[in-house]
Amino acid sequence: MLCVHWVHITQALAIAVALGSPANATGLSDIPAPVVQAIAAQHLPMRAVSFAIVDPDSGRVLASLNGDTPRSPASTIKLITTFASLDLLGPAYVWQTRALLRGDIKDGVLDGDLVLQGGGDPYMTLERWWKFVRLLRDQGLKAIRGDVVIDNTAFSLPPEDPGAFDGRPNRAYNARPDALMVNFQSIDFRIAPNADSHQVQIVATPAPPNLVVDNRIGLATGRCDTFADRVDFEVASEQWDRVVFSGALSAHCAQLSLVRVLLKAPDYAFGTFVELWRQLGGQFAGKMRIEAAAPDDQPFLTFDSVDLAEVIRLTNKFSNNLMARHLLLTVGRERYGAPATLDKGVQAIAEWARGRSLDLQDIDIDNGSGLSHTTHISALQMAGALGAAYHSRYAPEFIASLPLAGVDGTMKSRMRNAPAGSVRLKSGHLDDVSGVAGYVTTPAGKTLILVSLINDVHANNGGGEPVHAAIVAWMQGNL
């Protein structure tokens, strides 16, 4: 019944476009005056702005501008990825990370290799990785006489330049998916001057033994100013396993913090495993190998991820690119079998959209995260997907995953004047792109769909925010 109902909504949108209703509005008379004023105040051309306000119950387009113009959606495309994942896999879906034994174990000593097999867990934080290692110890494993084997064959991805998007390969948002991704491959450096020791100390968390930190920062005298607080950071090896800090920091300067993606994913998993294993009293003196688990390896421990509902909440609330990319790969693997590939994920989303009667055949979802120069979607296409989500069996889980304006996630400091809990919008930002998409509830209790996408150089530096806010304010004051 819900599926039939949404076909009706999709048809209503299509009819609205065909009849030249507000869905294709280009005249100022079709757009709320406060929105026109906000667009003009930000020096945005009307052709660069698309928005659609839709009643999810009737499918009626209440107001729109350039609604069927393809736009770069930035991170709002995560709404398609997360809704498809939730709809296809269900909120209780989990990923599994396994430990297998290649050899005999006696009195807690493994006379052979320990195989760590990744299943694509998108949220293996350092705390959860510690728990995984702790469970190995609790199961009686004390020493590993062989090697640690990393099996990340659940994902099959082509070579990728992590700096191709913006030339910043070591930033967290550019991290590349891996079937055994630990802690988003990130190292948190705390840099603090110490007048007593006459040194600048660097503390890395985690501190895997296969990462070399070369500290060349000098302690400067005098007050903290632009000449005494310059710290430079360099990744000094192709394997990202050596970093060099240089410059100078005054003893009067505050502690600095720097987070970077370092090592390669298998090296990071291995290094942090060894660090935690030894901290927990485990013995190991071997090396790392990367290879698939063998059929006769003995299962020893299976570790479940947090459930999909929580992964979707974290992905949307905090706009996590890596988690969104893992979701796309996972739906492809579940639909077409292992290993997960980007093509399988894209094909699975396309097949899902056709089954849902969603008009998404012309979009390029790329990697599913929005960190892309090729992804495009129209405001009405996005609104159609949000309408389907609103009427889906997992609507509560999906809607709750969106950031609340003025409350949490990427919307915590935005639209604070909106009534608490009334605005749930996924935001998106790239160079020349600003967007929001989600649900707005009016004072009368009516929930409406809003998609607002701006593609223009003036959208940089917050130029799109007043336009999105003006649309929300008009909705809550007039609808």
Structure, described:
It is a single chain. With 479 residues, the chain is α/β, with parallel strands linked by helices. It is built from 11 helices and 18 strands. Strands 3, 4, 5, 6, 13, 14 and 15 form a 7-stranded mixed beta sheet that branches. Strand 16 and strand 17 form a beta hairpin. Helix 1 runs antiparallel to helix 9 (379-390). The chain is globular.
- Compute the number of helices: 11
Q: N- to C-terminal separation?
A: 28 Å
Total beta strand runs: 18
Radius of gyration: 25 Å
Secondary-structure element order, as H and E?
A: HHEEHEEHEEEEEEEEHEEEHHHHHEEEH
pLDDT < 50 runs, ≥5 residues: 1-27
The average pLDDT value, as a whole number, equals 92
Largest sheet: 7 strands, mixed
Based on CA inertia axes, which overall geometry fits?
globular
Strand proportion: 25-35%
Q: Structural class, from secondary structure content? A: alpha/beta
The percentage helix is 25-40%
